[in-house]
Amino acid sequence: MIETLAQFGNMLLYPAVALIAYFDTLIGVGFFVFGEIAFVTAGVRWAATGDIWIVILVLCAACSGDLTSFGLGRRYGARAASRCLKPLSRRRQWRRARRLLMRYGIGFVIVARLLGPVAWITPFLAGSLAMPARRFALATVPAVLIGAGQFVLLGYFGANAGPLLQRAYAFLSDHMGIFAMGFAIFCATGVIWKMQRGGRLVQLLCAVITAAAIVLGANLYYFFASGAHAATSLEGQPQTVGLCDLKTMDLRVYPGNTNMHLPQPINVLLISDVSPEVVMSGLGWQQNMTFSRDRIGLKTYVELLVKRTPPVSEMYYFGQPAQSAFQLPGSLTERVHIRWWPAGWLGDQQIYVGAISRDEEIAIKYYRAIPALLHDIEPEVDRVRDLLAAQIVGHSELSVLGLAPLQKPVHDGQESDYQTDGRLLVVGSSYRSLLPQYYNCLSLTQNGEV
């Protein structure tokens, strides 16, 4: 019985909202009918069921109501108006609508849908003033789409307000730093532009200097005073997996946790019973400090710059910062460096993943919550991966096991900060062999070819 009543109610919904939308602008009746109810209801229904036809129905009904009022105005004109508009307030609305319609024509018919009570009499008035029917019909379609459509969208988004608000809050929270910096730059440069005298060039120069000072100040505060790196991880959990599970994982690291943060590829895989710190030290690499693992003040940072071993900015592997970072001796702008993360176990040996790249230049990049002055990497990351492989070949305690195609290739021209063939350099201990099943699951051969 309840299901029957529910079905009957659904059947009545369509004619009910259509009639309300139709009578909304019908002269005389429209003063007592609130079409917004029908339009909002249609939007809610659309959001709940995906039924777009109820929206089309109410919009067509609204257009029909406008055309009917227009026809009545064309036929009965001022005589009917005098009977329907006896109250003083209605006559004032009539005179106002008539004056605007005579002045703006089609534009007024469209805008009238947004003017409350004026919308109720505009179609009838247009007919009484002998406005061409074709022109009115062309005007009433966008008028209904704008005037009624706003309430349809209100119903649609109102029905989804909870999830939408949650997504909006999450987006604002993730990017609050860049919004705050942008607002500060906008306000400060606006004040400078308004107060500074001496010509447009001087104003522009002062505005640019002010914006640069704000960006620099925000970077200094974020890295050295805010404690933003005190939390050792972003959202996510450490990934402890078996060796063959790496084939199904996202082997990329990110400077933040949104889709606006551009990743770098994992391109080295170490299987060893010694830590990457021991391995890299044996290869002659210098260990770098990191902002999450070390306490770095501005003085320490300057001292490290002088030594040409500045800290490495954080990249996150499933929300976790690097366990350690190393660099080859080189210049400040073109150093080769690698970050390491623990990834799992293979018996009594630990699995580590690494991201190796070469710094190319200083650039402004989106880092965690702010635009920051960071090194930009050389796009062809496979070159430095192969450089590390050449180093390991001559090492007595390490062995290159091969190149494992665990990622999708990224070619030149794709939207990315890098290009790669998608293969990871697999490194192991020279005195311990890898079982054949692991060569198979990683798709590599003992001579290093795939």
From TrEMBL:
The chain crosses the membrane at residues 12-40, 52-73, 100-121, 136-157, 178-195, 201-224. GO terms for cellular component: plasma membrane. It is a multi-pass membrane protein. It comes from the Bacteria. Its main location: membrane. Pfam families: LssY_C (PF14067), VTT_dom (PF09335). It is found in: Cell membrane. Residues 258-424 form the LssY-like C-terminal domain. InterPro entries: DedA-like, LssY-like-C_dom, VTT_dom. Keywords: Cell membrane, Membrane, Plasmid, Transmembrane, Transmembrane helix. The keyword Cell membrane applies. Residues 36-156 form the VTT domain. PANTHER family: INNER MEMBRANE PROTEIN DEDA-RELATED, INNER MEMBRANE PROTEIN YABI. Belongs to the DedA family. This is LssY C-terminal domain-containing protein. The lineage of its organism: Bacteria, Pseudomonadati, Pseudomonadota, Alphaproteobacteria, Rhodobacterales.
